[in-house]
Structure formats: structure tokens, C-alpha cells
């Protein structure tokens, strides 16, 4: 199902016959998914960054569903060194909650901070931030995630990246204080491949 959420961008529910548990993906479903995956990633990621501010406004029911299904877990707070000097549009790799958990801090052009676990939700490879497309990309099987929400955009992952919960403290210090575990089953894609 496709729901318009902004100019050129649709929220897309993954078809039932493409879910991980399905043993018999239909040929039509398989072809459709291949078609989605072939879309130009760079253009699409940029479009999503430009329009994602309107996503929750345009889809209030979606935002409620997201809030209901996410689960937040607190971990020992840790200051993110260097966050206060991160320029808009920049990124910073750090580790959280342990030194073996790679994470990335992103700052949008309007100054907003977001942070995600870099563990790909497919098989755990470390995703990298691509500044030119402003997407998070997995080198193992080309999974691609949107930087604004952590949503799956392309490839085999079935759930978003886990989000790091941030807290701004006195003096402009940014701290990581927990993790938000995403929900399953949503991807976003471009209207031109929306199968109208
Ligand atoms: S491990 Fe990231 S796409 Fe497979």
C-alpha cells in the first residue's frame, strides 16, 4: 500500500508476499521488489531528506503507530565527545552503549541531532554514512537507511536502525542515554516507483 507523505515521497507497506516469513514470494511481488531496489539511491535519499519534515505532519496515524511500537531502553549515559563542534550536515562516529557498539551522530542542515546504531538490522554489518546522498549504507548487501528516521529504504533489512536516545545538557554537551528499538515492516520509497 502506498500513502503520499510529501512531494515525491510515499510511505510504503511491504507487501505481504515479500515478508521474511513468506515461503512463497509471488513472481509479481519479487519483480516489484527488484524494481524498488533498482531506483537511483542518491536521488531518492536526497528527496527524503528534503521532504521528511512533512512526513509525520502528513501522516499523523503513522506517527502514532511508530510511538506505540517503539521500545526505549536506558543505558548508562555517555557524553559524545566532539558533538558540540559538529557542523550542520556533518557526522561523527562514536560507540554506544559499549565500546563494541558502533554508532553514528548526524546533524541535519537545520541543526537537529540524530544518532543511530551502525549495526545493520539485516545481519549486523556496520553501516556507513554517505554525505553525498545523506543515507546510511550497508556494505554487505546494499541495505540503505534514511538518515532522518533510520527507516529502511532499500535492500534486505526488515526493520529500521536502532536509534540512540540523546540528551542535551548544560554547556551544549550532548549525551547518549539509551536506545530506541525500531519496529518491523516499513520501508519508504519514491513515488515514481510506486506502482500507481
Ligand atoms: S548486513 Fe546490511 S544489508 Fe545485509
Q: In what order do the strands lie side by side in the largest sheet?
A: 7-8-9-10
Structural class: alpha+beta
Number of domains: 2
**What's the total helix number?**
4
Major pleated sheet: 4 strands, antiparallel
Percentage of residues assigned to helices: 10-25%
* N-to-C CA distance: 10 Å
- Small ligands present: FE2/S2 (inorganic) cluster
Output the CATH topology of the largest domain: Rieske Iron-sulfur Protein
Q: Which stretches of 5+ consecutive residues score pLDDT under 50? A: 1-25, 35-39, 49-68, 190-196
Spell the H/E element sequence: EEHHHHEEEEEEEEEEE
Strand percent estimate: 25-35%
Write the layout of secondary structure elements.
Elements: E1 2-6, E2 9-13, H1 27-37, H2 41-51, H3 55-58, H4 60-69, E3 71-79, E4 91-95, E5 102-107, E6 113-117, E7 128-130, E8 135-137, E9 144-146, E10 152-154, E11 163-169, E12 173-181, E13 186-190
Antiparallel strand pairs: 1-2, 2-13, 3-12, 4-5, 5-6, 7-8, 8-9, 9-10, 11-12
The structure holds FE2/S2 (inorganic) cluster.
Description:
With 196 residues, this protein is of the alpha+beta class. Helices cover 18% and strands 35% of the residues. The chain is built from 4 helices and 13 strands. It is globular and about 40 Å long. The structure holds FE2/S2 (inorganic) cluster (FES). FE2/S2 (inorganic) cluster binds at residues 120, 122-123, 125, 138, 140-141, 143, 155-157.
For this entry, give a set of tags.
disordered C terminus; disordered N terminus; 4 helices; four-stranded antiparallel β-sheet; 196 residues; 13 strands; binds FE2/S2 (inorganic) cluster; three-stranded antiparallel β-sheet; single chain; alpha+beta; Rieske Iron-sulfur Protein
